[in-house]
Amino acid sequence: MLPYTKNHINLEISLGEELSKALQGAKGDNKQEISDKLNSIKEKEDEDLKQFFDKFEKKKDSFINRQLKKFEKKNKNYQKLGKKGN
């Protein structure tokens, strides 16, 4: 996951540089059109990244929940053994 994040940050930096160059060279209506296109690309990339991290969070949460259920089950078994031993 970390390499993906680093790559995304580098992509953001290079996209920002390209945006700056494109806007400096553009004139009038063309400048707004370029800005709109780049903003729509950025919004799509942000949404893709959000979906990626949402999936990661869900996987992490389900793993933690499975581990908690295993622990609770073991804990109940230990409690039953303790009651039988008394």
TrEMBL record:
Domain of life from the UniProt record: Eukaryota
Protein name: Uncharacterized protein
